[in-house]
Automatic annotation (TrEMBL):
Biological source species: Microtetraspora malaysiensis
Positions of transmembrane segments: 23-42, 54-73, 85-106, 126-150, 157-179, 227-250, 262-284, 296-318
Presence of the UniProt keyword RNA-binding in the record: no
Name of the featured protein: Uncharacterized protein
Alphabetical keyword list: Membrane, Transmembrane, Transmembrane helix
Length: 328
């Protein structure tokens, strides 16, 4: 009884520290905004570049909510530098996610573009603020990823999945910076001293606002840098999910019992994911829509798929041989 009364509540304090309320509150707020934006798309008939004015807040709310929830989950399993990582994530919430989504939502309320908008001094200032927030978010995510590299984890597959997922997510974020550069026509106009209402674009080989895919809003007639941006960004969720899936499959498949095997498969998946992101970026930069791949794109995709499949097959074959040899 004395031990129970005098022992400091270390475990309770640790659980409290690992909750990371700013990230969880951010994820909850993004979920609410996604619902509100969904309702807005049904009741508000205004459009921007052919899309419902509330479509962009909806997409970003879902993406940012996943980012916050995933980061909260990662930070909840730390052993080292928990306080430092807590503050880095808090800065990401306050300096990156909150101002970014606030500007996007504010511009949706006004019924104007949030990105690449230089129509008025206010629009230009807001877009510049979004750019600064994005840079800060990249730096905070990078710092968090570096510190996560040195965390002790019992599961080797997850030990690879987390930092590789963050690295690929950073690469996906970086694709966004390509969109802010003036297009060839815009650069020529700026060189001629013209004042432009729009600087930058996500479309390659055409203008923003053309025919788009349902749900995603990606261009179907031109290259679209947002495809690689989206895929790379969400490696943060994809690779840890692959690690979790392999661990669950290991309960039924003896070949996956070894942690080294699962870790090797995660590395192969990460390399394949990186290849896919690069392929989508290459396709977009050639002005080619995702839905209209040419023979060169299809060939590259086939080679990538074959390489991933062959690597995974080799890993599993070697592990089966080791198990058979061990039993013999």
């Amino acid at each position: 009884m004395t031990n129970l009364l005098t022992r400091p509540p270390v475990d309770q304090e640790a659980r409290h520290d690992r909750l990371h309320r700013p990230l969880l509150l951010c994820a909850a707020g993004m979920a609410v905004l996604a619902v509100v934006s969904g309702i807005g798309m049904m009741v508000d008939g205004r459009t921007v570049l052919g899309e419902a004015v509330w479509f962009k807040p909806f997409k970003f709310a879902v993406s940012f909510g996943l980012y916050a929830a995933t980061l909260a989950w990662m930070l909840g399993r730390l052993q080292r530098w928990r306080r430092t990582l807590w503050w880095l994530a808090a800065v990401a919430v306050l300096g990156f996610l909150t101002p970014e989504i606030a500007v996007i939502t504010f511009q949706a309320v006004r019924g104007v573009r949030s990105h690449f908008n230089f129509s008025t001094p206010l629009d230009a200032t807001l877009f510049a603020a979004m750019g600064g927030a994005a840079y800060l978010g990249w730096l905070m995510t990078f710092a968090i990823g570096v510190l996560l590299l040195f965390q002790r984890r019992l599961d080797k597959a997850m030990a690879w999945a987390v930092p590789l997922g963050i690295a690929l997510s950073l690469a996906g974020m970086s694709v966004g910076y390509l969109m802010t550069s003036p297009t060839a026509d815009q650069a020529e106009a700026l060189n001629n001293g013209l004042k432009l209402a729009t600087i930058g674009a996500h479309s390659v080989g055409g203008l923003d606002g053309g025919t788009t895919m349902p749900l995603t809003g990606w261009a179907t007639e031109t290259g679209d840098l947002r495809v690689a941006h989206f895929v790379g960004l969400h490696a943060l969720q994809a690779l840890p999910l692959i690690a979790i899936g392999l661990r669950l499959l290991a309960r039924r498949l003896p070949t996956l019992h070894a942690e080294t095997t699962r870790a090797a498969l995660v590395i192969v998946a990460a390399l394949g994911y990186a290849g896919l992101t690069g392929l989508l970026l290459w396709q977009a930069q050639r002005g080619q829509a995702l839905t209209q791949p040419d023979s060169l794109t299809l060939t590259a995709a086939g080679v990538l798929l074959a390489a991933v499949a062959a690597s995974a097959t080799i890993i599993l074959t070697v592990q089966r041989a080791r198990r058979s040899h061990g039993r013999a």
